[in-house]
Amino acid sequence: MKKDPLILILDDDPDLCVMIKMMLEYNGYATVEASNEDETRKILLERPIDLIIMDMLLSGTHGTDICRRLKQESKISSVPILMFSAHPNAKEACLAAGADDFISKPFEMNDLLDKISFFVSKKANAGQ
């Protein structure tokens, strides 16, 4: 039985999390949510995650700092990270922190789905 790709959503905005979660699950993805770095680490060490989607600005910490720290850990550094933000200079900062890709807010759901599909299929093909 083929399992659905598992996407971790890291955001401190519960409404945005619910919207992304519903859209992803409707499109055949399994999801798990985290609202901070500690929850994210715990999840990443417990189960195989296919992609992390995370906001650049989280309460109490900067998403680029979390991204940088995650990419420095050998056990989890291979998990692709797709970051998003409405900040004008966010793309450069996110990519410099090690994010694999970036999408500007507000984003079209189809654009987000295209990026997710790219990373999930890339990971699936690498695993074969």
Give a short synopsis of this structure.
With 128 residues, this protein is α/β, with parallel strands linked by helices.
Description of the molecule:
The chain contains 5 helices and 7 strands; from the N terminus they run E-H-E-H-E-E-E-H-E-H-E-H. With 128 residues, it is of the alpha/beta class. The protein has one domain: Response regulator (Rossmann fold, 3-Layer(aba) Sandwich), CATH 3.40.50.2300. It has a 5-stranded parallel β-sheet, sandwiched between helices. A two-stranded antiparallel ribbon has the order 4-5. Strand 4 and strand 5 form a beta hairpin.
Q: Compute the number of structural domains.
A: 1
In the CATH scheme, the class would be Alpha Beta
The computed structural class is alpha/beta
CATH topology term: Rossmann fold
What's the arrangement of strands in the largest beta sheet?
2-1-3-6-7
> Main sheet, how many strands, which sense, barrel?
5 strands, parallel
Instruction: Identify the quaternary structure here.
Output: single chain
Helix segment tally: 5
Fraction of residues in helix: 40-55%
Shape: globular
The CATH architecture category equals 3-Layer(aba) Sandwich
User: Strand-and-helix sequence, N→C?
Assistant: EHEHEEEHEHEH
